[in-house]
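Here is one chain, start to finish.
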Amino acid sequence: MSLGLGMDLNWGKNGDFVVDETGREKLRPSLSQFIRRHDEDFQSAFFSLQPRTADLLHNDEALTPMLAAYREFQSHLPSVSDWGLHHTFLNLGTLEENYPREAIARVTNRVTRALGLGWINEDLGLWSLLGKNLAYPLPPVLTADGLAAACENIRFFQGALEARLRVEFPGFNEGNTILLGDLCALEFFRECIHRTGVDCVLDTGHILGYQWRQGRRGVRMLESLEELLPFPSCVEIHLSGCSIVGDRFMDFHHGILQEEQFTLLDFLLERCSNLKTVTYEDPKFLEDGTLITKA
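Its structure:
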């Protein structure tokens, strides 16, 4: 089993890369220092694909700066042999009929080949509505129709993508998450995984966020997980920063892990027999590359 690094990288102005005098995009100094300190710790890594405009789907040249930036990131992690991509526009939970699936698959496959990726991951949810990106992805529509649509979307990308697909349990961020439908999200996710046979990812913050929303807190935070999570299909676990602010569970991705996440991790490690990677997602660090104190 490997330790993974997940980075939500942006390129261009005010992003995670800086342009040198030759026009080449290079890692910002703090990120470069962090990797220099920890490059040998990670054997797996992913970064997020975040399109700025729809041009990405119709203009191959729109990919050029992104591919150059991500190749630069890869060059700093020679110890990583297992590279993946966290997608943000497969939109696996959508019910839209005219969604440009074919174009999305074509672009994803080009990125896969260019960067040597082995797998593609995305949260099972709604990342856009009618072509408009959402600030925070919504869970899928928790109805029978929503379940059928999600399974159909997963099956399409299983067949269309050249890299293996992984589907992640969605986030439930207080204040950003609207629940549509009355099915249990844990059962919904399990059914999607079982019906399609797809690999899955379990994010500790996402699971705890849903449990918190259902009133399963404290000693009850593991309630129902034994019966409802698809343990044999889980190949990766995410540890991403979250917080409890007042009475609200916040999926901040700020690099600070809670004690409850380690309790849940222990629970999952005992049950996920096909687990390949535990990934620390979106670490935060100082200018010299050291993790922030609370992390």
